[in-house]
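Good morning,

Attaching, inline, the backbone tokens for the sequence recovery test we're adding to the shared suite. The designed sequence is right after.
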């Protein structure tokens, strides 16, 4: 499972961390693995946004990640790619148009919000980071439940 946003410092590393938390809670670490990346190169090598990590910590989740950019190898290393928004969905498909790897929006797993974007909290305040945490917590949990049911 590869979670993708623009810079790989807010939404996608949080989605990765939450998905991994849900995997651990279900005892499925040997069955599923995840990573995250960005379509842009703005923050390569950086840790996730400090506001995102602080919000996650306030919600009982501690995580770390080094930002990286989407690569051609990701299309063979991952069985499923999950972008946070429509712009990154388009960028993923343009980057490797011949790929047969399924690509579906994160909020396709957020009941009632299918087809919607996970908002980018980067230029917003604390509430935006909490909203994104809640969205990603619900969505990653629902995604795992769907995978388990198959």
């Amino acid at each position: 499972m590869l979670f993708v946003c623009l810079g790989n410092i807010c939404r996608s590393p949080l989605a990765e961390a939450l998905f991994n938390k849900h995997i651990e809670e279900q005892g499925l670490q040997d069955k599923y693995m995840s990573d995250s990346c960005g379509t842009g190169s703005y923050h390569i090598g950086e840790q996730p946004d400090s506001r995102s990590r602080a919000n996650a910590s306030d919600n009982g989740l501690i995580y770390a990640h080094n930002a990286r950019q989407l690569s051609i190898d990701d299309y063979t290393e991952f069985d499923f790619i999950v972008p946070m928004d429509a712009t990154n969905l388009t960028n993923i498909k343009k980057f490797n148009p011949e790929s047969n790897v399924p690509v579906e929006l994160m909020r396709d797993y957020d009941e009632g919000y299918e087809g919607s974007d996970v908002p980018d909290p980067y230029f917003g305040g604390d509430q935006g980071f909490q909203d994104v945490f809640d969205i990603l917590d619900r969505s990653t949990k629902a995604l795992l439940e769907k995978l388990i049911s198959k």
